[in-house]
Amino acid sequence: MKSDIYKIKNAVEKIKSGRNTLFLDGRELKLVTSKLKKEEYNIYYPYNDSEKLMLYTGKVPLVRLFKINTVEKVRHQDILGSLFALNIDSSYFGDIVLYEGSFYVYVSNELADFIKDNLTMIGKNKISLEEVPLVLLCNYERAYEKHEVIVSSARIDSVVSSIINSSRAKAIEKIKNKEVIVNYEVMNKNSYVLKQDDVFSIRRYGKYKFIGIIKNTKKNNYVVKYLKYL
Q1: How many structural domains does the chain have?
Q2: Which residue range forms the structural domain that includes residue 46?
Q3: CA distance 138 to 154
Q4: Cα-atom radius of gyration of the chain, to the nearest Å?
Q5: What's the CA gap between 36 and 24, in Å, rounded?
Q6: pLDDT tens for residues 144-171?
Q7: pTM of the full predicted structure?
Q8: Which of left, alpha, beta for 123 (phi over 0: left; psi -120 to 50: alpha)?
Q9: Are the C-beta atoms of 129 and 66 separated by less than 8 Å?
Q10: What is the DSSP code string of 114-125?
């Protein structure tokens, strides 16, 4: 896509001119760093296990952390959807993390005030953003739910079918409708075989990390393990 090409080119130009990038996901990070020499950049990790990172050359990038205050329970995917509803690019916000029962979101300083002033609803729930020190999550470790399921293969359509508790045909339909993302790219092959540590998401169902095949069953199926992001 042209927007992706521009984003990668823009990130490279920022590093070349001594500035920092905005947030990059794993795919974008790989593309940007492939066009740079290792000595040309440093990597900023908001926390040890962060998925979205920034590249910089001089000063550490200015990043702010907001706690999402809400009375009603909200979900990760709802927060993400509400951020996109502000018509901002995903480069302006980092990971959304759950810590001690509350959600937090990292944002670039460039749009932090705009996000704080305009992100007032998540779904039908009124919320407020409270800025907190970055050090609050310096020792944060991502939380997961562990799952093991029996599938006919480690193909993406088979695993998605099991997760959504529906037919493989329904899973294939979701893939065709661009509702399945694998390693930050829209999946367009229902025959893709998941590999260890592949990160994938299913629209309206959540985000997952594939661990691998644990064992075979007597009926020639497979027990696979995956983690669901919380």
Answers
A1: 3
A2: 2-56
A3: 35
A4: 19
A5: 15
A6: 899 999 999 999 999 999 999 999 999 9
A7: 0.76
A8: left
A9: yes
A10: HHHHH--EETTE
